[in-house]
Design brief:
Length: 180
């Protein structure tokens, strides 16, 4: 499998506590960063992950860093909506840490998931995945608050994971311009 470096010239890293995600990241040619406090569960150190992510962007000069969180998926599978809500709140705090320490005029941040995991279904479902992309020159749509129903009205609705990836690569300048 060609790596992200071979395909795009991209220097990429992944911050996670999940060994499967780490293995996939390494297969894709990403540098994998973990810590004993980074778990693939509800108790992961999100503040530590956020600070490491910022350090990799600002100090290590990575072009693209993925910070992985598994807890919301687990809470969906286990039908624990209160825990899922608490993890989302912790993720919100971690995003706040990142936003305080990066310059959105020279960096982009994307918040998304690989799939929806409904507590009611206790499984992955085909619902759209809320996605936010922020940065100095990102076009804004009509969405002004965060939530699954609000995101369904946004411009990123119904994009595939590959679409989101390619949009990110375009924004950071790692793909050729398509069109005129």
């Amino acid at each position: 499998m060609p790596t992200l470096k071979e395909l795009y010239g991209l220097r990429a890293a992944c911050v996670s506590g999940d060994a499967t995600v780490g293995g996939i990241a390494e297969l894709a040619g990403m540098d994998y960063y973990t810590d004993e406090s980074f778990t693939g569960s509800f108790d992961t150190n999100l503040t530590g992950k956020a600070l490491l992510t910022v350090g990799l962007l600002n100090e290590q000069n990575y072009d693209w860093v993925v910070m992985h969180v598994k807890g919301t998926d687990l809470a969906g599978h286990d039908n624990i909506p209160i825990v899922k809500k608490e993890i989302i709140e912790k993720i919100d705090t971690a995003i706040g840490i990142i936003l305080q320490k990066i310059d959105l005029n020279s960096c982009y941040i994307t918040i998304t998931a690989d799939h929806s995991t409904s507590c009611e279904a206790r499984d992955h479902i085909g619902d759209g995945v809320p996605t936010i992309i922020a940065g100095g020159d990102v076009r804004q749509d009509c969405v002004t608050s965060a939530g699954e129903s609000q995101f369904m009205a946004g411009s990123l609705n119904n994009l595939t994971a590959n679409d989101i990836f390619m949009l990110q690569m375009d924004l950071i300048g790692f793909t050729d311009k398509v069109g005129s």
